[in-house]
Write a structure and sequence with these properties.
heterodimer, A: about 110 residues, mainly beta, 3-stranded antiparallel sheet, 9 strands, globular, B: about 120 residues, 7-stranded mixed sheet, 4-stranded antiparallel sheet, about 0% helix
Chain lengths: ~110, ~120
């Protein structure tokens, strides 16, 4: 199975909203509700921001939200803040032998 | 709280071997699949391997199949990755993770550098 497709980069100004897409297939993103998003700052461990498509772990700001339509999942960050600048990775459960797939990552720049 | 702590990283020559360990605590180890993920310098996350909670199901990415072996020790609540025939392209930070069914808790990472 191929990795999930994410845009290589997105950008936005403080206070704006940005959306990062994650496109898979009907066998992974389209079939299961186990879509998650990770935030990674340089040199840091990836942090779980969204799981099960749209659920936030305790401590993750409400500015982060997730959704899914068909074979594409999305992470939306509203009210952008400077500390949101990071790499973001989507991750889905495939239900197959590989079990998990990662997206290629998206670099978010806060202008 | 859930904790995963990797150890065993370091510098190794091409063709050499290394064994990573991941000590876990804060959850019932036998209830969860466990996995290894790596990240080469400046690159994205690569799902390498997982082992089912019973140890009966194991997966390896094509890039490491036949060279790496994942295992778990329920008595020690620990996960392992035996890495043989290491190549320069295996240079990366290696993370262990609890899988439920996505990697929801990660260790701090262990740096493996393969260089002569």
């Amino acid at each position: 199975q191929s990795a999930l497709t994410q845009p290589r980069s997105v950008s936005g100004s403080p206070g704006q909203s940005v959306t990062i897409s994650c496109t898979g297939t009907s066998s992974d993103v389209g079939e299961f509700s186990y879509v998650s998003w990770f935030q990674q700052h340089p040199g840091k461990v990836p942090k779980l921001m969204i799981y099960d498509v749209n659920k936030r772990p305790s401590g993750v700001p409400g500015r982060f939200s997730g959704s899914k339509s068909g074979n594409t999942a999305s992470l939306t960050i509203s009210g952008l803040q400077a500390e949101d600048e990071a790499d973001y990775y989507c991750c889905v459960y495939t239900g197959s032998y590989t079990y998990v797939l990662f997206g290629g990552g998206t670099k978010l720049t806060v202008l | 709280q859930v904790q995963l702590v990797e150890s065993g990283g370091g510098l190794v020559k091409p063709g050499g071997s290394l064994r990573l360990s991941c000590a876990t605590s804060g959850f019932i180890f036998t209830d969860f699949y466990m996995g290894w993920i790596r990240q080469a310098p400046g690159k994205g996350l690569e799902w390498l391997s997982y082992i089912s909670n019973s140890g009966s199901t194991i997966y390896y990415a094509d890039s490491v199949r036949g060279r790496f072996t994942i295992s778990r020790d329920t008595a020690k609540n620990s996960l392992y990755l035996q890495m043989n025939s290491l190549r320069a392209e295996d240079t990366a930070v290696y993370y262990c993770a609890r899988v439920s069914p996505i990697p929801d808790h990660w260790g701090q990472g262990a740096l493996v550098t393969v260089s002569s």
